[in-house]
Amino acid sequence: GDCSWAWDDHHLEKDNLWATIREEIARDSKAEPICSSFLFSTVLAHNTIEESLAFILANKLDSPVLPATQLMQLFLEAFKSDEIRSDFLADLLATYDRDPACKQYSSCLLYYKGFHAVQTHRVAHYLYRRGRASLAILLQSRASETFHVDIHPNATVGKGVMLDHATGVVMGESTVVGDNVSLLHHVTLGGSGKSTGDRHPKIGSGVLIGAGAVVLGNVKVGNCSKIGAGSVVLADVPPRHVAVGVPARNIPLVGSDTTAPVQDMNQLYDI
Amino acid sequence: GDCSWAWDDHHLEKDNLWATIREEIARDSKAEPICSSFLFSTVLAHNTIEESLAFILANKLDSPVLPATQLMQLFLEAFKSDEIRSDFLADLLATYDRDPACKQYSSCLLYYKGFHAVQTHRVAHYLYRRGRASLAILLQSRASETFHVDIHPNATVGKGVMLDHATGVVMGESTVVGDNVSLLHHVTLGGSGKSTGDRHPKIGSGVLIGAGAVVLGNVKVGNCSKIGAGSVVLADVPPRHVAVGVPARNIPLVGSDTTAPVQDMNQLYDI
Amino acid sequence: GDCSWAWDDHHLEKDNLWATIREEIARDSKAEPICSSFLFSTVLAHNTIEESLAFILANKLDSPVLPATQLMQLFLEAFKSDEIRSDFLADLLATYDRDPACKQYSSCLLYYKGFHAVQTHRVAHYLYRRGRASLAILLQSRASETFHVDIHPNATVGKGVMLDHATGVVMGESTVVGDNVSLLHHVTLGGSGKSTGDRHPKIGSGVLIGAGAVVLGNVKVGNCSKIGAGSVVLADVPPRHVAVGVPARNIPLVGSDTTAPVQDMNQLYDI
Questions:
Q1: Which helix (H) or strand (E) holds C215?
Q2: Which residues on A lie below 8 Å from C268 (Cβ)?
Q3: Is A70 close to C34, i.e. CB distance below 8 A?
Q4: Helices C113-129 and A133-147 sit at what angle, rounded to 10 degrees?
Q5: Across-strand partners of C28?
Q6: DSSP reduced 3-state for C153
Q7: A168 vs C184: CB contact, 8 Å cut-off?
Q8: Testing the interface with B: which of A163, A267, A270 to mutate, by most B Cβ within 10 A?
């Protein structure tokens, strides 16, 4: 199956998305006056979704280390990048699309720490690539403290990526994650050994990785494959296979169904 | 064995419990003057255990999103419910009863993030059931950020429930947990697939779930059963069985002992 | 192999270490003016590494419960202990030595929550041994909230210990960890059952424990052994063995190589 991400085909256009989020929030604000000042300052007060997201992240990551005002500037600067903007929109739509508990676009924007962690990473990665390693590592550290997700700023993360629940996710320095991937909580994409260089997993597109799975070393997980919850993957997984067990073995995905695992989000497996 | 929870039988009555907690804190406050202002404001200044707990949780969950003063009001309102009150007392007694490292009732009240996460969930659930979904989801999100426990407000949690250590616990939208259950840290009661509706585990009473275990889908774990640490459960577990392995197989609990696993808290298993 | 820790042999002397950290920070501060006030207050303003670390931890653990000023005093008092000082230096050098993503000594000092959690534990342990249990338990609780690492203050932790990524690490009341040990994130050194007394693992020196591994009960893991990611260890592991699987079986470490697993940090295993 083609695992490329194509949010334009089945989703709101960007301008409609922002309008929809504002409508959701206006409704919530009316229903819950106790939240209205918070909902105004995070969403309704802003002209664009980029500005709203920068404000939300800056306030969550705020600390004496780097105050919200300075973080806000950093985030706004990074969000001028077309790539980051289209990535975070794809992530938001992916979450709404794949998580049946996500009933409003605004829930993901305001409340999902997996979404917040990935967007913080995108900014850290942007800085890291521009020679600002120490600032990028500071952001990595604040995201690990705040969202409990530890992604090295050098890791490359595609678009349409969802971290569901997110607590405990780890991605090492030379990790590459494709487009249209979902990782449940506690997933480790880890290195092995003290050697420097390319030592972390390469995850294809359309992949679903179950809760608590550990993938170690410079292994390749093929497009449209799935890794079972609690499995430990130490070797390549071919495309359209499911890897299960400790250590995992690879089993072809059965049937003529060419849906990517990330689309049905089914963590179960038959073996 | 009967797995119902009966804290009145082997524990302090409620009034004695509050008096005992105040005595513990008065003693600690005298021994550690450095903590006395904190111990006064959290415990000694209050007339009831409900007021004390509301104050403790409101301050832990405090943020610009929803300040402590407003949280305190929400918690006090929910704690007028007899059911929530009796549930949190049972949780507190269960923790004291089952965790040998818990040497004072007040330690659980003040310091156990698993206890705090469950009580925050009880309030979120209370609000959710009364049509206040957006506020409930905000509380879920704050609890996930603060206590590293992610429980959907629609999940139903019985009384006498302990989350030990608690980091990383996840319970999805249609989860049901019985009375008198203990979950170690990193336990996932997760859904599978994008279908809405009833898609999460149903955990019986008297059940013990070991560290890092993953239970997926609308499966039934019977009363007085046990799930081994690191196990992945994808199918029903009959009553009085232990489920172990990745994926787990079910083994009858041996011997004439009818003690519920939750009572001896023994995570080990013989296979 | 001899798994004892000997940082003097291959590392900077203590005074050189502090001078090196100040040089790193002076360089970073010049390159990132946005961070300079933070870097000045945490490192450059201090005369010793002890003072710097006390300031860093006090600010991270700061809360209305126990404000940074009082925490700073507690940490400075504990850091007068030669043992704690030499332990935290060994931990810092171990992290620099073993984590290829750690490119500056100062990164570990400022940003690694595993390092922060272990040093907070050392202070909690110091207080606990001096009869200040309630204060020690308060520190344990703050560390669990802040660093997502839950170590009982009675646990004994050797020197040269690294918690890599750290989210979700748990060590129970009677745990003993030797010198020169590395634990990845989500590692549980847990008890079993409600019995009090000696009920937690004893980890030898030179040991490497992979991500998500669970070790339960009063079992002994021998020197220079390794526990595979996601494995569940319920029985003793002899020296120079690797334990893998759920539940784990023990396999001798092959070859004439006498390097401790903690030195090559290789989480992979051949079975």
A1: strand C214-216
A2: 192-193, 216-217, 234
A3: yes
A4: 60
A5: none
A6: coil
A7: no
A8: A267
- Answer yes or no: do C168 and A172 touch at CB < 8 A: no
Per-residue model confidence as pLDDT tens digits over C20-59: 999 999 999 999 999 999 999 999 999 999 999 999 999 9
Which single residue is written with the structure tokens 């009090």? C196
The model's confidence at residue A4, banded by pLDDT at 50, 70 and 90, is low
On whether the CB atoms of residues B160 and B154 are closer than 8 A, the answer is: no
Contact B79, B50 (CB under 8 A): yes
How distant is the Cα of A55 from the closest Cα of chain B, in angstroms?
Answer: 12
Residue B258 pLDDT: 63
DSSP state of C254: P
pLDDT for residue C1 is more than 50:
no
For residue A152, which residues of chain C lie inside 8 Å, CB to CB? 101
Asked if C175 contacts B250 with a C-beta cutoff of 8 angstroms, the reply is no
Q: What is the pLDDT of residues C156-182, one digit of tens each?
A: 999 999 999 999 999 999 999 999 999
Q: Comparing C-alpha atoms, which of B193, B196, B173, B218 is closest to residue A264?
A: B193
- Looking at beta carbons, which residues of chain A come within 8 Å of C115? none
Instruction: Determine how β-strand C214-216 pairs with β-strand B156-157.
Output: unpaired
pLDDT at A13 over 80: no
Q: pLDDT at position A1, please?
A: 45
Q: How far apart are CA A24 and CA A42, in angstroms?
A: 13
Q: State yes or no: pLDDT of B135 exceeds 50.
A: yes
Residue C199: its chain B contacts at CB < 8 A? 100
* Torsion sign, CA atoms A45, A47, A51, A56: positive
Helix, strand, coil shares of chain B as percentages rounded to 5? Answer: 45, 15, 40
Pairing of strands C226-227, C241-244: parallel
Asked if residues C224 and C203 have their Cβ atoms less than 8 Å apart, the reply is: no
Claim: this prediction has a pTM higher than 0.90: yes
Contact B229 C212 (CB under 8 A): no
Distance between B124 CA and the closest CA of chain A, angstroms: 14
Is B167 within 8 Å of C144 when comparing Cβ atoms?
A: yes
End-to-end CA distance of chain B: 22
Instruction: Round the average pLDDT of chain C to a whole number and report it.
Output: 92
Biggest CA-to-CA distance, chain A: 56
User: How distant, in Å, are the alpha carbons of A227, B146, B263, C89, C161 from that of C118?
Assistant: 32, 20, 32, 12, 8
A138 with C98: Cβ contact below 8 A: no
Residue A37 has a pLDDT of 93
Give the mean model confidence (pLDDT) for residues C114-134.
97
In chain B, the domains with their CATH numbers are 7-264 (1.10.3130.10)
Cα C32 from chain centre: 29
What tokens does A142 get?
């604040």
In A67-104, alpha helices (H): 68-78, 82-98
Q: What is the pLDDT of residue A56?
A: 98
**CB contact (8 A) between residue B231 and residue A230:** yes
Compute the nearest-CA separation of C106 from chain A (Å).
Answer: 10
Smallest CA-to-CA distance from C154 within C178, C180, C121 is with: C121
A vs B, Cβ pairs < 8 A, gives 118
How many Cβ atoms sit within 10 Å of the Cβ of residue C145?
A: 20
Residues of B in contact with C165 (CB under 8 A): none
